[in-house]
Design goal:
single chain, 186 residues, alpha+beta, 2,3-Dihydroxybiphenyl 1,2-Dioxygenase, domain 1, Signal recognition particle alu RNA binding heterodimer, srp9/1, 2 domains, five-stranded mixed β-sheet, four-stranded mixed β-sheet, 9 strands, globular
């Protein structure tokens, strides 16, 4: 879009509004996502359901098209949807609530910028529940540009049951969320 001086002005969205998932099993999917995110189903019929957990009218929509095939396994496409929690205490409480309901994490990883717990819905879609490890986006972006991150861009797996135990014992959160490769030579 041309600016006043004939330059191109960058125009970006103000936020990500929602994600839509397709399924053959609408009710189990609505139940799973509502439980995972403690979301409210604000509308549902035989074809579609809308869920929200914040100030957006819907963050997740789940649709059941009449001609939809089943899940195809590991193929190209969306890998996961990530949701950020305000604190380690909130992430731990969510993990414990879900575990108490028999919903187990499929992977827990310290990515560097985030500490993340992954879950898989009834159709095989993955949800990442995370906390940020840095105080602001500038610090996180600087970390993403660091040699340590370049050497280990996925991060390291975490024994979250052990982390939860240590959290309840009062261990320092900075120690609990430390990135294994933080102290490598740059």
């Amino acid at each position: 879009m041309p600016g006043a001086e004939g330059t191109t002005r960058r125009v970006v969205p103000s936020r990500l509004a929602h994600v839509v998932l397709r399924t053959r099993r609408l009710r189990p999917m609505l139940d799973w996502w509502a439980d995972l995110l403690q979301a409210e189903v604000v509308f549902e019929n035989e074809f579609i359901g809308f869920l929200t957990f914040d100030d957006e009218h819907h963050r997740i929509a789940i649709v059941r098209p009449p001609d939809l095939g089943g899940p195809t396994g590991h193929t190209a496409g969306l890998d996961h949807i990530a949701f950020t929690y305000a604190s380690l205490a909130d992430l731990v409480a969510t993990y414990e609530r879900l575990k108490g309901q028999g919903i187990d994490a499929t992977w827990v990883v310290n990515h560097g910028p985030t500490l993340s717990v992954y879950y898989q819905d009834p159709d095989g879609n993955r949800a990442e529940l995370q906390i940020d490890r840095f105080a602001d986006n500038e610090e996180a972006t600087a970390f993403l540009r660091s040699p340590a991150f370049a050497r280990h861009p996925v991060g390291h797996s975490v024994d979250f049951d052990d982390l939860v135990r240590r959290f309840h014992e009062g261990e320092d959160e900075a120690v609990l969320t430390a990135y294994r490769y933080d102290h490598e030579n740059a």
